[in-house]
Structure formats: structure tokens, C-alpha cells
Write a structure and sequence with these properties.
Blueprint: E1 5-9, H1 16-26, E2 31-33, E3 37-38, E4 53-54, H2 57-65, E5 69-76, E6 79-84, H3 85-93, E7 97-102, H4 104-113, E8 118-125, H5 128-138, H6 143-158, E9 165-169, H7 172-187
Parallel strand pairs: 1-7, 1-8, 2-7, 3-4, 8-9
Antiparallel strand pairs: 3-6, 5-6
The structure holds guanosine-5'-monophosphate.
Guanosine-5'-monophosphate binds next to β5, β6, β7 and α4.
């Protein structure tokens, strides 16, 4: 049976992963995180099958050709990310509502396929400078990659009117509560 889809999106460094983690631990309804596939290399603190399914670029392309993805994007130059149909089905089979942490284009693609069953929520950083500082503090990306993420962020934030809901992530405690409330009211 199909359950609901909760699609959290926003620029890299907007704090959406922290918000999603809080949502998964605080929400009373059955939720589960959709683990995406990616062709990028794992970071030091990442585990295959937990953070992502890390696929070789060749295997990722094969899965595209086989029609295995609900959506996929070349989020950054040469790095593909996508949602596997079987991942969503697996979580629905467990009776869970599925939570996504994906980019803006992917969020809108899933919304088109499930207009009634899904909610799209955009997480907006205070400003681009705050976003850049977060990415620099995280120290997991090269300076070239940070620049790529910042310039993509500007485009992504312009897509805000296409989302069901926007949360300004300024004070973490406020935004975590806002996300929880929005999801609770969507699921009720
Ligand atoms: P990172 O490399 O920092 O883990 O993620 C980069 C971006 O890719 C993030 O903004 C994240 O939301 C997005 N992303 C992660 N998984 C997917 C996915 O399955 N599909 C799409 N379209 N974007 C994704």
C-alpha cells in the first residue's frame, strides 16, 4: 500500500540533513529515510547502505538505462544522485511514510509523479553568506566544490514558489519544530 512522501529539499549547506534527522527521531508517525544512490565517492564518515548506496559511475548509468530510478539528477558536474524505485517500495512495504533529502529538481520530479501523496518542503538558509560559512565549516568539500554548491544554491532558492512550503532555517530549534508541525498536519 502506498503511504505518503515527505520531500525535504534545499541547497547544500542549508541545514536540511540536520532537520531531517530530527524529524525522523521526533515524529510519532512511522517514517523512514529514503537512502539515495550516488556515483560520488564516500566521505570519511559515510557508510554504504546507510548514508547512500555508493555505486560506480558505470553501475549508476546501467540503472538509469534499466529504468530503476524514480528520479535522478547530475546534481554536480559528474556526480549523479537518484532515488531508486525499489528503495521507496521497500519502505512502503514496511508501512512507512518515506522522507527524502534531495535536490530541488528531484523534489519537483517526485511531486509531479505523486501530486496528492507528497509534500515538498524547501529549507532556506538565512542568506548565501551563512550557507557558504556552513559549507566551509563542514570542511568536507574542496573550494571548487563549495563554489559549485553556492552558485547552484542561488538558482535553487529561486524555485521556492514551486514548493508546497518553505522553512527559513535561521534558529535551529524554531525550524525543527516548524518542520515537525508541518509534517504532522500533512499526515493527519
Ligand atoms: P552531498 O554530496 O552533500 O551528500 O549531497 C549533494 C546534494 O544532492 C544534496 O543537496 C542532496 O539533497 C542531493 N541529493 C541527495 N540524494 C539525492 C537524490 O536521490 N536525488 C536528487 N535529485 N538529489 C539528491
Amino acid at each position: 500500500m502506498r503511504k505518503k512522501l515527505i520531500i525535504v529539499s534545499g541547497p547544500s549547506g542549508s541545514g536540511k540533513t540536520t532537520l531531517v534527522k530530527h524529524l525522523l527521531s521526533a515524529c510519532k508517525s512511522p517514517l523512514a529515510f529514503s537512502i539515495s544512490a550516488t556515483s560520488r565517492q564516500p566521505r570519511a564518515n559515510e557508510t554504504d547502505g546507510v548514508d547512500y548506496y555508493f555505486l560506480s559511475p558505470e553501475l549508476f548509468q546501467k540503472k538509469i538505462a534499466d529504468g530503476d530510478f524514480l528520479e535522478y539528477e547530475e546534481v554536480y558536474n559528474g556526480s549523479f544522485y537518484g532515488t531508486l524505485k525499489e528503495e521507496v517500495q521497500r519502505l512502503w512495504n514496511e508501512g512507512k511514510n518515506v522522507v527524502f533529502d534531495i535536490d530541488v529538481a528531484g523534489a519537483l520530479t517526485i511531486k509531479k509523479q505523486f501530486p496528492k501523496e507528497s509534500i515538498t518542503i524547501l529549507i532556506r538558509p538565512k542568506d548565501i553568506e551563512t550557507l557558504r560559512e556552513r559549507l566551509e565549516e563542514r570542511a568536507s568539500d574542496s573550494s571548487k566544490s563549495i563554489e559549485e554548491r553556492v552558485s547552484k544554491a542561488e538558482y535553487e532558492l529561486q524555485q521556492a514558489p514551486l514548493f508546497d512550503s518553505v522553512i527559513d532555517n535561521d534558529v535551529l530549534e524554531v525550524s525543527t519544530n516548524q518542520l515537525l508541525e508541518k509534517v504532522n498536519s500533512f499526515l493527519s
